[in-house]
Amino acid sequence: MFLKKLIKGIFKLLKTKIFIPYKGIKKNDILIFDNIYPHPISGFRLEEFTVILKEFKNSKILTVDDSYSILNTPKKNHPIDVKNLILNNYELKNKIKNKRGLVNVNSKLFYCIFISNIYSNIDWIEKYKIPFVFTLYPGGGFKINDKLSDDKLNRVFSSPFFRKVIVTQEFTKNYLINNKICDEEKIELVFGGVVPQISLNKGLINKKKYLINKNTFDISFCAAKYMPLGIDKGYDVFIKFAHNIAKKYDFINFHIVGGFSKEDIDISNIENKMHFYGYKNFVELNDFFNNMDIIISPNKPFVLSKGAFDGFPLGTVVEAVLNEVVALVSDELNENKIFINNEDLIIIENEPLYIEQKVVELIENPEKLYTISQKGREKFYSIYSNQYQMIPRIDILKKELNK
Q1: Which of 132, 135, 201 is nearest to 393 (CA)?
Q2: CATH fold of 198-383
Q3: Which residue ranges in the chain fall short of pLDDT 50?
Q4: Can you identify the CATH homologous superfamily of domain 12-194+386-401?
Q5: For 130, left (φ over 0), alpha (ψ -120 to 50), or beta?
Q6: Cβ neighbours around 148 below 10 Å, total
């Protein structure tokens, strides 16, 4: 009778939706956690975690579907996404675990991205004495001069099991050092972010270019909608710019990818030139950008909430440039330390007339458009290759494992 109850109790624990960590006999080298993987919209997660899981034979990732709603995706799609990932990466079949019920967390090293993810796991990580490394991307709960964010950072960095933090912006590194939040020797800077390598390893035989194989000039805007009017991403600025420049040229079209629609801001005067596509995954973006000439990204820091900011440049901008689309991007925090203005991309002010001036220069001087599109792609190809992005990350993890 006791054994029967014990077995029944174990099965009940296995089926519970509550996360119950325990330290089992089998020990992983690396245990990863993420709350969106393997959603196809989040291409950088797909690439980064898949590469790590393949590089380290004795590794696994804990996943949950809690954040699928942020991407306007039903939770029931999570197991479908897992199944599709395994179809193309069979070696990952036994490496993806649901963070539900009894879970063996015995591991030499823990890894995740974003402060929100490491903070939500820190208690059990410390309980089971697991050293950890994480990447502090902009977003994911990380804000500047924000008490709640700073408290989370201080809690994580003060842990006796904290080993390294990878940052993707020099601005982030300076903030941590100048505010005495983290010792410099524990910070590793790898500029930019991870990009699906399929975005790099493709031909552009279907690329459409203004005045070469099409007569239209196609302008794109790609961003998630997190607030009314999309002010944090500069959608309001983009629409004002669109109204202005549409009066000058009748061959211009505007293409919006993300959470926006014609209901957000009045576009009645240019509605016939506006095209809305909703969200697209990185594979769909490749086809989309084949028809674009430029992408405009006038995003603004500290607007979505106090201290909130985006990395430079946005992931959609990277996808665009890799498809020989000229990027016009704002950089109020002076995060850019890699790309040459007016050669690899164009730095803009968040002001409609300023953006209009820069776009008119490209329309009236198509050779400048072609030159920047080609040089930009070459530079981005180098910076966003796995050689530049993933090798340093893997080396950091290996060094920590070998200590």
Answers
A1: 135
A2: Rossmann fold (3.40.50)
A3: 2, 4, 7
A4: Glycogen Phosphorylase B; (3.40.50.2000)
A5: beta
A6: 11
This prediction's pTM: 0.89
Residue with the two structure tokens 């950890």: 132
Where do the domains of the chain lie? 12-194+386-401, 198-383
Q: How much is the pLDDT for 206? A: 87
Type of residue at 155: R
Q: What is the pLDDT of residue 200?
A: 86
Sequence-distant (6+) residues with CB within 8 A of 209 are 293, 324, 370, 373
Q: How far apart are CA 65 and CA 106, in angstroms?
A: 22
Cα distances (Å, whole numbers) of residue 268 to 239, 257, 259, 261, 352: 11, 19, 19, 12, 18
Q: List, in sequence order, every residue forming a beta bridge with 111; answer none if it has no partner.
A: 32, 133
Alpha carbons 316 and 344: distance in angstroms, whole number:
16
CA 278/CA 222 separation, integer angstroms: 9
